[in-house]
Amino acid sequence: xxxxxxxxxxxxxxxxxxxxxxxxxxxxxxxxxxxxxxxxxxxxxxxxxxxxxxxxxxxxxxxxxxxxxxxxxxxxxxxxxxxxxxxxxxxxxxxxxxxxxxxxxxxxxxxxxxxxxxxxxxxxxxxxxxxxxxxxxxxxxxxxxxxxxxxxxxxxxxxxxxxxxxxxxxxxxxxxxxxxxxxxxxxxxxxxxxxxxxxxxxxxxxxxxxxxxxxxxxxxxxxxxxxxxxxxxxxxxxxxxxxxxxxxxxxxxxxxxxxxxxxxxxxxxxxxxxxxxxxxxxxxxxxxxxxxxxxxxxxxxxxxxxxxxxxxxxxxxxxxxxxxxxxxxxxxxxxxxxxxxxxxxxxxxx
Amino acid sequence: xxxxxxxxxxxxxxxxxxxxxxxxxxxxxxxxxxxxxxxxxxxxxxxxxxxxxxxxxxxxxxxxxxxxxxxxxxxxxxxxxxxxxxxxxxxxxxxxxxxxxxxxxxxxxxxxxxxxxxxxxxxxxxxxxxxxxxxxxxxxxxxxxxxxxxxxxxxxxxxxxxxxxxxxxxxxxxxxxxxxxxxxxxxxxxxxxxxxxxxxxxxxxxxxxxxxxxxxxxxxxxxxxxxxxxxxxxxxxxxxxxxxxxxxxxxxxxxxxxxxxxxxxxxxxxxxxxxxxxxxxxxxxxxxxxxxxxxxxxxxxxxxxxxxxxxxxxxxxxxxxxxxxxxxxxxxxxxxxxxxxxxxxxxxxxxxxxxxxxxxxxxxxxxxxxxxxxxxxxxxxxxxxxxx
Lengths: 350, 388
Prior knowledge:
The complex is a heterodimer. By secondary structure, chain A is an alpha/beta fold. Chain A contains eleven helices and twelve strands. Chain A has helices at residues 24-39, 55-58, 64-71, 86-99, 118-123, 138-151, 157-170, 213-219, 247-256, 273-283, 306-319, and strands spanning 5-12, 48-52, 79-82, 104-112, 188-190, 193-194, 203-212, 224-233, 265-267, 290-291, 325-332, 338-345. Chain A has a ten-stranded mixed β-sheet, sandwiched between helices. A two-stranded antiparallel sheet of chain A has the order 5-6. In chain A, helix 4 (86-99) packs across helix 11 (306-319) and helix 7 (157-170) crosses helix 10. The model of chain B has no long low-confidence stretch (mean pLDDT 95). In chain B, helix 3 (89-102) packs across helix 14 (334-350). Chain B contains 14 helices and eleven strands. In chain B, the strands form two sheets. A nine-stranded mixed β-sheet of chain B has the order 3-2-4-7-1-8-11-10-9. The interface between A and B is large, with 63 and 68 residues. Chain A: GO terms for molecular function: acyltransferase activity, transferring groups other than amino-acyl groups. Chain A: This is Thiolase domain-containing protein.
């Protein structure tokens, strides 16, 4: 690819169980202002804008139109929207910058799970004729996957508890996290998953700014260059997939160039402890890699923003000089059906 | 390095109808995709990525249906991207797919948009109360009717113009085997005598609710050299958005639409759209939007759009045919409607539009809009590759 694209700014909200006092627009506005402040860019300076969100979480059609009002799309802007996690909005923006039609892009996403029951809401994304009428919820489906891993000897309950403990311990240094610090593993939510193996339900938003080449160097002291990015989807039906593996993640990582050289950091989107086991295997992450130093989705999982936050957290570590080559991953759909992988690099330090 | 040229080599539609009770959502989209593949003489194995769009998930009651549709669209193991930009989504989806090719991320992309309105109730889906805003309690027509009245007041257009558009589009639809409404006995008088729904919009001046899907195969220059037939080439494409409501918003001729058209014309080297464009597939869900968009898209001066319609310029055999396919007024699977406009524009420049072919069409515009007339997407296609 002829153009180098980098993440030059990242902001996220404080993730909370309830945001009854905020509309979605009010939740998004501070993170938009934050990335604009970091770069000095105004809405009218940005070449392309793309967002990710879900009407089903908002409980109404065209919910993203309200957030666009918050962006201040006047004079009119070049803009698009994906009905999924903002990581895919970032992908669309990355492609747009590669065409040469824009030099900068704003990407944002948000989700409020608090107004409804997110476990019930997510059942509506299943096959509408055969599966959704049974209302299998997201925790039950994740538990199927976890049990398959236990049966295969890939993990056990103490190992899962250790993932939960490590994630929430790491989240102590993340001021935005919803669940920082030690938590009891708790009772079974759906066996073999305990409440501690499950992500918190919460509301949140995130925003990222992308820029190309020298524009990125102007806007950021140490841009996080996107060396590759790819995403892949698997069959929907859980019955035709090996739930202990994630071939789509492996293929996306390969196409993104993740296996060409080792990474030092991996921000992976694993809302359930058991999914980290699957993803670590698919990505070949060994003990030398710092996994989810932010605490990951187990510490804060605002649906539709959690994947974009993984990309943002990985980039921010490069910005701060804490990483030279990082992998970021986002997932969508039941039991890791769809997966996106990006490889980010900082320029060598003197 | 200049962008890779993008060619449309396959187009497939379903026969649009009020209710496709014989197929699931998956069956519907697969039908359109298979027709596009057959048109291009390609197989699933030739497709590198799938870009799918539709309007709100509430219409079918399936959250993020692309997850469930991955298998039906041969996307397993491939990238699949879902676009949602309200009513403009069919156009936006095609543009996102085109960007994958022009950026050289993928060589051959299947793009598809659909709506199966019979599985839900679009009126309900469009009438949910929105906090802090005036409720849109009567579907899209209730929202757009006041803006039509504003257009009439501003331009002095006689109240007969809307019925002329509807009568024209419904007659054009008779020549399009995929169109939903085939009203063989419709007369201008019947349009004018149809019930008033949202003054001044009458029943026969509104779009139907359709089940349908539209698919296209986009590919790069090398892919376009394959048989079987010459492709349509993308000469320009753009999206523009502006806020829903704000002081100073011009609902009659939104600036986002004007800016979007100007960007597309700049890319395509068009300086006089009225003369240089041979056919237009325009998003006209309520008949009065034809004269309004004629002005917004630069085909007529401000206040003059209705005169083109009245003079027959936009008829199939007119100087600037608008919606030779019958348009959204005859076929409206909402999420697919924008892509149908883009695909019909491509059919015109390929000379493949059958009975509704505009003779000698070499450059055609596909247009879509959505939200509160705030999201716009357009492309201009031609019968030869873009230069430069």
